[in-house]
Structures are given as structure tokens and as C-alpha cells.
Amino acid sequence: MAQAFVAVLLVCLADIPREGCTEATATDVRSIVVEGELGCTIGWQELVARAPSEEQRASDAPVYLKTTCRRLKPGAAQR
Questions:
Q1: pLDDT tens, 30-75?
Q2: Could you say which DSSP state residue 50 is in?
Q3: How far apart are CA 1 and CA 60, in angstroms?
Q4: 63, 70, 72, 78 - which has most CB atoms within 10 Å?
Q5: Which among 58, 52, 65 has a CA at the least distance from the CA of 14?
């Protein structure tokens, strides 16, 4: 059975350095369960990022996207 991963898309303000863009500093965090590690990098970001959040609609500040990937622990609840 393939190991599941959580693909996380961070929406960070452009003035935050890339290494400082974390779930705590991002203006929006979106995630989805993918079947494998490769799934963290292919295709899903565009689907998740298309619908802007309320914060993004209210702000014209430039942002960038950062993708992270982590293993889904066996038996963890999928949200």
C-alpha cells in the first residue's frame, strides 16, 4: 500500500523571505491528501490556489506560493 502524504500550499507575502515562509507566517494555508510524494509537486496547486481566500481578496499585496510535503501518519484523521 502506498504511503499517503499531505501536500501543503503556503501563500506568503512577497516581503517574507522564502525560508521564513511557514504555516505560521503564511497569509493562507491550504492542504490536500495525495497518494504519493510525487503528488505533492504535480498539478494540485493550481486547483487549490484558484479560489482566493477572503484575506487575498481584501488585499492587493503581492504574494508567492510555496509547496511543502509531509507524510500522513498511519491512522491519522483526514480533514
A1: 888 888 888 888 866 666 666 566 555 556 788 888 888 999 877 6
A2: S
A3: 44
A4: 63
A5: 65
Q: What is the dihedral sign for C-alpha 31, 35, 40, 45?
A: negative
This prediction has a pTM of: 0.70
The whole-angstrom separation of Cα 22 and Cα 38 is: 21
In the DSSP assignment, the letter for residue 8 is: E
Greatest Cα pair distance, the chain, in angstroms, is 44
Residues facing 69 on adjacent strands: 7
Express each pLDDT in 14-42 by its tens digit: 999 999 999 999 988 888 888 888 888 88
Specify the DSSP element, H or E, that contains 11.
strand 5-13
